[in-house]
Design brief:
Length: 503
């Protein structure tokens, strides 16, 4: 009865001032509870004892005011649902207007859960506003900080960073997948402010290796410029010469320039002076000197317009010495090409006499027609075509043909090749008795049509130069149907060959 009177007096005192004090005559708030003994060794309990209910009671309440505070002392009743969805342990809870919310403070019986002692899940987006403050992480673990495992990993133990790997082996490791260069396959991309990018990656196939490519975002190649403001670039060397823009160093590899045909080369426009390519048509390195393409195969000697042969004349297969170098000629694919003995006057200067020769149109044909002038004899005629192919074991030029006894309507078409590719040297007449011979490109034609009479010893010499070649094929035709009586058999069109220069 005494305690009730004291409390009533205190409450009445407080009400007059809209404040209530417990153990204090001067409350400092709407409800001010002061410990009776704030210090000392008194064993009398002090504190505030709020309503204690089980989970079922908390779940059953209605009309609960926001901020209502309870202590749940039993969770074996009711269920963790509805407004009790958060009631999963003994402890203090407050009502937020829709559900009971657990006090997380360890001082209120809840678990002190935070990023320093527990895993967790964000329930919504969060922003850390640093302002002018810094945020630093320190650690000594190999994987001290990571994002989604291998997406990003910081190795504090070895001071390394990994992207695409949780175990970086160097200061920065970006790990991707081996793939052919494309608009999407690069391991690392440096992205420009517009559509231009630079990609780094590794190849998936032998001999593997890595690539750097410059392109737009659709995969179209763009220029790649190395060291634009520096002095030099080295490949295969750590110390490129200061006098070289680019130094290539290797003892088991070579430099492979752009390779293209003559037609592809000619389509390059414009062509800066010094441009270099490998011509797959001629099998030669070439460079543009600002006016023409210059071959690097060798320096071609000038076309030799002298009448004589300074080396060995030949008419069939053999090996000959030209300027101290052996060259082998192999004859094949012969058609009506024979060997002939007893030719006179073979060179324009008259130095030849009674020599052997190759013979085009040499297999004359008996027509079976009687010779009107010689009873019992027949008319003979030349074949309509003749051919020979000569292959050399090394390129040659200044190839001379000493051609005697060309006849009516004869034509000889020359084809030249180097490494199997047709080339186009220059053919020029050196001598031409009575203008019986004419040249058009690589074709020799008879100018004289006698009309059945035998033309005695017309002779001409021509030279083929201005390009290297290792094969020549000569195809002869005679379309006039010229015939000769048996008493003066057709002897064909005699030739001898001479090599001026070898490569």
């Amino acid at each position: 009865m005494k305690k009730i009177k004291i409390i009533s007096a205190l409450l009445c005192f407080g009400f007059s001032f809209s404040q209530v004090g417990v153990n204090t005559p001067e409350p400092k708030a709407t409800f001010d509870i002061t410990a009776k003994n704030t210090t000392g060794i008194s064993t009398i309990p002090e504190g505030l004892l709020i309503p204690r209910v089980d989970r079922q009671k908390a779940q059953s309440m209605t009309g609960i005011a926001v901020s209502t505070l309870i202590y749940v002392n039993n969770i074996s009743t009711g269920s963790q649902a509805d407004n009790a969805i958060n009631i999963d342990a003994l402890g203090y809870y407050y009502f937020n207007g829709s559900i009971w919310v657990k006090f997380k403070s360890a001082g209120f019986g809840g678990k002190n859960t935070n990023i320093y002692n527990s895993n967790g899940t964000l329930t919504e987006n969060r922003i850390v506003a640093q302002g002018n403050r810094t945020l630093a992480f320190t650690g000594t673990a190999a994987q001290a900080f990571s994002v989604d495992g291998t997406t990003f990993s910081a190795d504090a133990a070895n001071h390394r960073v990994g992207i695409g790997t949780a175990a970086p082996t160097h200061k920065l490791v970006v790990q991707g997948v081996n793939a052919q260069p494309s608009a999407t396959n690069a391991t690392l991309r440096i992205d420009g402010s517009s559509n231009h990018v630079m990609d780094f990656g590794t190849f998936p196939y032998s001999p593997y290796g890595a690539y750097v490519s410059s392109l737009d975002k659709t995969g179209i190649p763009l220029p790649l410029i190395l060291n634009p403001l520096g002095s030099n670039v080295g490949i295969g060397t750590t110390n490129p010469s200061s006098k070289a823009i680019l130094e290539l160093n290797a003892n088991n590899k070579g430099f492979l320039p752009p390779r293209m045909t003559t037609d592809q080369r000619n389509a390059i426009n414009p062509k800066p002076a010094g441009l270099m390519i490998f011509n797959t048509t001629t099998k030669c390195m070439e460079n543009w000197d600002n006016s023409k393409w210059v071959s690097k195969c060798s320096t071609l000697p000038p076309i030799d317009m002298s009448e004589s042969c300074s080396n060995t004349m030949f008419t069939n297969s053999g090996t000959f010495t030209v300027g101290g170098t052996n060259v082998t000629a192999t004859f094949s694919n012969a058609l009506n090409y024979t060997q002939r003995v007893g030719m006179s006057r073979f060179q324009c200067n008259g130095n030849d006499s009674e020599v052997s020769a190759g013979n085009f149109m040499g297999n004359y044909i008996d027509t079976g027609k009687p010779d009107p002038q010689v009873p019992g004899k027949h008319i003979f005629r030349y074949p309509s075509s003749s051919r020979i192919r000569i292959k050399f074991n090394r390129p040659i030029t200044n190839f001379k043909v000493f051609h005697s006894n060309i006849h009516d309507d004869e034509k000889y078409i020359y084809t030249f090749k180097k490494n199997g590719i047709t080339v186009y040297p220059t053919m020029q007449l050196i001598c031409n008795k009575n203008n019986y011979y004419s040249i058009s490109s690589t074709t020799i034609t008879s100018n004289k049509v006698i009309g059945g009479a035998y033309v005695d010893n017309p002779y001409g010499t021509y030279v083929i130069g201005g390009a290297w070649f290792d094969e020549v094929e000569i195809n002869g035709t005679q379309t006039g149907g010229e015939t000769y009586p048996n008493r003066d058999l057709p002897r064909g069109s005699a030739v001898k060959f001479c090599i001026g220069n070898v490569l």
